[in-house]
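User: I'm new to structure prediction. If I give you an amino acid sequence, what do you actually give back? Let's try with this one:
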Amino acid sequence: MLHILATNGPLTTWGMAKINLATDTSKVWAREKQYRKLLVGREDRGKHSPGVLEIGLVVVDGKSNLRGPANIYRLSVAGILYCLDVLDLTNREIDMMAEKYDHVLPWIFGKWSYLKSVIRNDVYRIKVLAKGLFLDNIHTIKVTKLPVYEILNYLSSKYLDYFEHIEEKDLAEQISCWYFTQLLIPTSNKKSAVEYEQWQKLFTKKDKELKEWYQNFLNEVTTFYENRFTVVKKLKKL
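Assistant: Good question. You get back a string of structure tokens that encode the predicted 3D arrangement of the chain. For your 238 residues, that looks like this:
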């Protein structure tokens, strides 16, 4: 079900069931019933098993009146990351996901074609991000000449208060900042990072919107450390 949502975008349960069973209506009904249980969970001997809606991998994304009132479902940001981590999607399938979810991750999937034109297959390092593997190289991050460690430290501080619950828009913003920063980090299997000169090309006049967004983020980082430096200077005067 998650794979269907990943590659086809928002759908009703009937729409999901029809993806692979279009010619057999009786099987579509049965499959739709299965999907409903997966979405909302089930009660078994007084014990509730949560569905993917409650877990947060899927969210309701509007209503359809095509066959009577029905919820339309899509992957959440967490669901997108889960699929990238667990389902072993091909690059082509990730391209399909990017097309269907460009409004959910506008700074990554909304810029997907542009990103591919600049850094080519390195766009698929989003799979590394989803697995959290780049954090395995924390010692490498600390010694690099680029301020990667400082940026990641700021992100951790910024979203610390939202560790247990975060609005989807804020999570999408956090993931997007992580994504563009982790492109500069070698992956855990020793593959090289995106070259700095190539990475810089992402933030040029070719996409002024992306450049302005990331520049504003870097301004936040700068302000954060300037304020922390002021605190340290005050301590020196004690």
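You can read the tokens as a compact description of the fold. Here is one thing that stands out. DSSP finds 13 helices and four strands in the chain.
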